[in-house]
Design a protein that fits this description.
The protein is of the alpha/beta class. It has one domain: NAD(P)-binding Rossmann-like Domain (Rossmann fold, 3-Layer(aba) Sandwich), CATH 3.40.50. The chain is built from 6 helices and 7 strands. The strands form 2 sheets. The chain has a 5-stranded parallel sheet, with helices on both faces. It has a two-stranded antiparallel ribbon with strand order 3-4. α2 links the parallel β1 and β2. The chain is globular.
Length: about 160
């Protein structure tokens, strides 16, 4: 049951919990980030960056390039390895990928020690969610980091 309208057993999160995640998060890997400014992933990443988060672009099609002033990596593992050498950890994995891509991304998020797996609007995957929850990650599905940040953490 991967439909965005189907509740996933054991996966519910309150606005208070989402606000806490957004407050505690400092570094966000944007998986599926586009270099094109008109794409949702780019717009969301730019908004988050403008609100004090460090964004880490992850997209094999743009690996080695710079997007929004940050190096883009092919995989979460590649990004985490380079950042670890700088003393930086990825707090959140924000996914702009299809639902069927979520299980391997959940495994990578667990492997790199992320604290949250966030699936953007329209993306839900029960197996990936349960896998991440079992490993101690917070899981947010079918929600937008930009919208939630604006609603929960800004006065505007």
């Amino acid at each position: 049951m991967n439909s965005m309208h189907t509740p996933v057993a054991g996966v519910s999160i309150s606005s208070t919990e989402i606000a806490a995640i957004l407050r505690q998060t400092k570094v966000i890997a944007i998986v599926g980030m586009s270099a094109k400014p008109d794409r949702a992933s780019h717009e969301v990443a730019q908004y988050l960056q403008n609100h004090g988060y460090r964004i880490i672009p992850v997209n094999p099609n743009h690996s080695g390039q710079s997007i929004l002033g940050e190096a883009c990596y092919a995989t979460l593992h590649d990004a985490a390895r380079v950042l670890q050498a700088q003393g930086v950890a990825i707090d959140m994995v924000d996914c702009f990928r299809k639902a069927e891509d979520m299980p391997p991304l959940a495994r990578e998020a667990i492997d790199i020690g992320a604290k949250c797996l966030w699936m953007q609007l329209g993306i839900s995957h029960a197996e990936a969610a349960q896998q991440a929850l079992a490993a101690g990650l917070a899981v947010v599905m079918n929600r937008c980091t930009k919208i939630d940040h604006r609603l929960l953490l800004t006065d505007s």
